Amino acid sequence: MSAAENDTNATPDSPAGSPGALAGPQPEPLRFFGTTWVDHSGGYTARRLGVAVGSLAAAAAACFVLRIAYDGLRIADIGSFVSLLMVVMFAICSALAFRHTWSGYTTRPDPDRQASLRGLLSIGFIGSLLAYFFRSLTEAPGERLHRAEYDKARAEYDKRVTRRSGNPSKKRRRRS
User: Fold this and answer.
1) HSE (CB half, 13 Å, CA atoms) of 25?
2) Which pTM value belongs to this model?
3) 133, 97 in Cβ contact below 8 A?
4) 33 vs 135: CA distance, rounded Å
5) Which of 89, 109, 166, 174 has the CA that lies 20 to 30 A from 1?
């Protein structure tokens, strides 16, 4: 598979004047929203509502599963220290995952830091789900970051393609 086939955000290789060509930068699709975040079309509000309900339901189901795991540890009578350690571990990891996920909606995360936090984020998945829920109440998660990047790219593109008409060296001088 070539690099162009593998790139999901690639623009067509057709010249700008040909029919079907896309002019300028294209918006990056968001999970569950595609590119509807640009103009809030295509059931954007219903998708946001669905994402909010879905992430909250997933967080509640995850808490239920963790409760069953905690009961299993209590039934096994492994001691109060280990049970407390498990609760504290999930609470801290969830808080850190919430903070990391929330900040990822305003700035691009560093890939190396993301890779090093993968274990912590998987333990604190409830925090990530809750961050997704709270962000989806106001916008599509990541919309603000993507909109800022898209608007900046669009402004740079418009500035680049806007040209003065005529040749400035052949400009007539006004006589006064």
Assistant:
1) 19
2) 0.74
3) no
4) 14
5) 109
CA distance linking residue 59 with residue 57, whole number of Å: 5
Q: Up-side HSE of residue 158: CA atoms within 13 Å toward CB? A: 6
Which residue, 118, 20, 101, is CA-closest to 55? 101
Q: Specify the 3-state DSSP secondary structure of 30.
A: strand
CA 164, chain centre distance (Å): 38
pLDDT tens track for 126-135: 999 999 999 9
Backbone angles phi, psi at 30, to 5 degrees: -100, 150
Helix (H) or strand (E) holding 60: helix 44-75
Residue 65 burial (CB < 10 Å; 0-12/13-18/19+)?
Answer: exposed
Structure tokens at 74: 């209590």
